[in-house]
Amino acid sequence: MSEVIVVGAGIIGMLTARELAAVGHTVTVLERARPARESSWAGGGILSPLYPWRYPDVVSELARWSQRAYPGLCEALRTETGIDPECEPSGLLIGEPGDLDDARAWAARFDAGLEVTDAAGARALEPRLGVDFATGAWLPAVGQVRNPRMVRALRASLELGGVEIRSDCPVQGWERSGARIAAVRTPAGRLSADVFVVASGAWSGALLEQTGLRLPIEPVRGQMVLFRGPPGLLRRITLYEGRYAIPRRDGRVLFGSTLEYTGFEKRATPQALEELRRDAARLIPALADLPVECHWAGLRPGSPDGVPAIGPHPEIANLYVCSGHFRNGVVLGPASARLLVDQLSAREPILDPAPCQPARLARSSLA
Q1: In this predicted structure, what is the pLDDT of residue 364?
Q2: Which among 89, 110, 96, 2 is positioned nearest to 47, based on CA atoms?
Q3: Which of 29, 95, 138, 159 is the most exposed place for a label (fewest CB within 10 A)?
Q4: CATH T-level topology, domain 3-47+149-217+305-361
């Protein structure tokens, strides 16, 4: 088997490392800062795209595969590490989506079990609502994971399995030998391997541009708040006008998030905090009386339509890409990692990889 370097220790990079190690590769993961402290840590852990019917079908295909895999994956991680990712079947209630015909058509294609509710039905599902949903979309099968616990468990599992994770080890450049990468340059020196995988989230675009591959991956800031509440305050993941409230098992409630094109500026702002608190109180009035435990920002790897790049570099034989998941890195992660390793290993893929090929998504932008 090969020696593989995975560049990026977020949830995508660590799930990819897990898949690679499972088939016998020797894996080293390089992280520019601290493992899984960017969008993997900062997001909500909802195991569904927010409005899944608004994405290309390949996103739903990846999500569906991951949704089926998550309960077993979380149980395996809990058994291996003692860290419970808290996979919870909360369901997803979407208020006033406005495009229910599209939602119904999507649900029929993917057997998604979508139910349409009226105001009384929505309030029966979530009694704490402060807004009457004249119409709502209810997806009872949607779950969540507590993403900080998920990535902690992943890291512990990898290290127990012999995968080396190097923190504060940014890749600064590539050394090429013909049509292959021979090594990466890092502050720790030159590191060689047989195969390289870029899974660096918002930083992937700049790294890949050095190889001549220009993917439309850019940082998109998202800000969230965490309320400390009693267990059982909120029942369901609730989404309304682009904002969502997520109930955790211990009573905490996450509320978010913003979408801000601010480059690599990750600072949390008082303006966003004020907006999030206002919108939270409107959607779930009980949140107005709860203390804000934390307010933070993270950088997502934005892509034009949310389709990630998963597959081989068009011109470099031993370089692969798994990035550009935008807001859906957690829910698409298991399927993305499996699909990447399917291609790397030349085995039957779990689904058609064509829509996710880096060459296709680059839109003929190779230098």
Answers
A1: 41
A2: 89
A3: 159
A4: FAD/NAD(P)-binding domain (3.50.50)
Is beta strand 237-240 parallel, antiparallel or unpaired with respect to 92-95? Answer: parallel
Q: 68-89, pLDDT tens digit by residue?
A: 999 999 999 999 999 999 999 9
Domain segments of the chain as ranges:
3-47+149-217+305-361, 92-141, 219-302
Report the CATH superfamily, name and number, of domain 219-302: D-Amino Acid Oxidase, subunit A, domain 2 (3.30.9.10)
Q: Which two tokens stand for residue 35?
A: 């493992």
Query: What is the distance between the alpha carbons of residues 99 and 260, in angstroms, rounded to a whole number?
Result: 24
Determine the Cα–Cα distance for residues 164 and 184; give it in Å rounded to an integer.
16
In sequence order, the 6+-apart residues with CB closer than 8 A to the CB of 277 are: 225, 288, 292
- Region class of 160: left (phi > 0), else alpha (psi between -120 and 50), else beta: alpha
**DSSP codes of every residue in 196-228:** EEE--GGGHHHHHHTTT-----EEEEEEEEEE-
* Angle of CA points 43, 308, 306, to nearest 5°: 65
Question: Is the predicted pLDDT of residue 366 greater than 60, yes or no?
Answer: no
- Angle subtended at Cα 102 by Cα 98 and Cα 107, rounded to the nearest 5 degrees: 120
Closest-CA residue to 159 (of 304, 14, 345): 14
Q: What's the distance, CA 330 to chain centroid?
A: 3
pTM over 0.85: yes
Scanning the structure block, which residue is given the tokens 């079990």?
113
Residue 237's DSSP bridge partners are 92
Instruction: Please check the confidence at residue 247 and state whether its pLDDT lies above 70.
Output: yes
Length of the chain: 367
Report residue 166 CA to chain centroid gap.
Answer: 21
Mean pLDDT, to the nearest integer, of 309-327?
98
